[in-house]
Specification:
Helices cover 41% and strands 13% of the residues. Strands 1-2-4-3 form a 4-stranded antiparallel β-sheet. By secondary structure, the chain is α+β, with helices and mostly antiparallel strands.
Amino acid sequence: MKQANLKIDILPNQFLKEDGTFDKVQALKLCGKIAGICYDEEGFSHLENEPLTKTLKRVDMTVNNGHHSVYDHIYINLNIQNIPKILAMVLNNENQYTTSEKSGRYTRIKRKKNPYITKQEEKLYNKWVGIFRLHIKAKYENIYNESKIQKLAQENARYLVTVFNPAQMIYTTSLRQINYLAAWMMEYINDKTKTTDFDKKLKNSMTDFCIELWEKNLFVDGLMRNEKHRSISLFGQDLKNEEQHFGSTYTCTYKGSLAYLAQAQRHRTLDYQMEMLDKKEYFIPPIIEDNKALVQEWLRDMSLVKDVTPQGELVRITEKGKYEDFILKCKERLCTAAQLEIMQKTKTLLENYKQELEKNNNQLYDDIVKYTNGARCTFPDFNCTQDCKFKEGKTLVRKI
């Protein structure tokens, strides 16, 4: 029995039946024919006309012997409604996907339209939207118009709102991958060691998600056996013990908010894992960090919503990848238009990377220094088409 309002519709494609469910039989037939390509001398046109029994025999063989790559040829576009943000993060951390997600920056939190939000969250969110508006306007009124100030205020007040806040997203992945995801979720759901309130809420959300997939006829039993014992990639353990390394590849561990992580994981060439801290800590928006009284008020208000796991809660994050892919992250995030927290953390990581390369006399040092003079518009190999004309943005010292 589903607990919430999570809902999935399959967007129009060749395997969508009139009742809105997936035509699994026809999809499996196509994959069965594709599986014959590797040894058929006459090519796919010959396979299209082969006897059905031969195709189905090949389907049975590939599904059950682990040769699942042919089921990646079938892509499914899902319109996922009311998906908790943290569950969207679980999906987005698995790199085989395309997603378009409604931004929290442009969405004002209203409890009347959102039964997942408590009265406390709504009250504090509205309170801090007002506070942030005043401080942003006082410091940057000559840079931002009223509309932009409102969006930035909402973006910062959102840190007080639960990471289970529902989102809307179009999610595209393959038939194989959606079954793998469902299998990993079921293992998470059945893991009796996951007993925190966070785990219980996430398990309920995963259950709703899997029920929706089952009702849409998307389950293929053979694709859900998980012989390689893979699991959801987002959650790690003992991340503080990860060895730090900076070279042609890198590994680093740091603290960041859940809102930050949701942004960072969209760089699919990089790998991210997270774990909760033993003692709760919270992100402090830089626009108020010089005002001690406001900082204390912010932290008190954060403690009032601690049980709903607000998006401003800090978690331990491990980031891994290749040097050139980290530079691509810099070209995306070292910009006035980027969310402030991810801009700041990318800047700090860039500085640490540079220092380590210099200390170890690594040949990449001569390359990385080209990217340490400010925002991406200062990079020698980046062409900015929209000059922000914002000095604090270009020098990466802005407070909002």
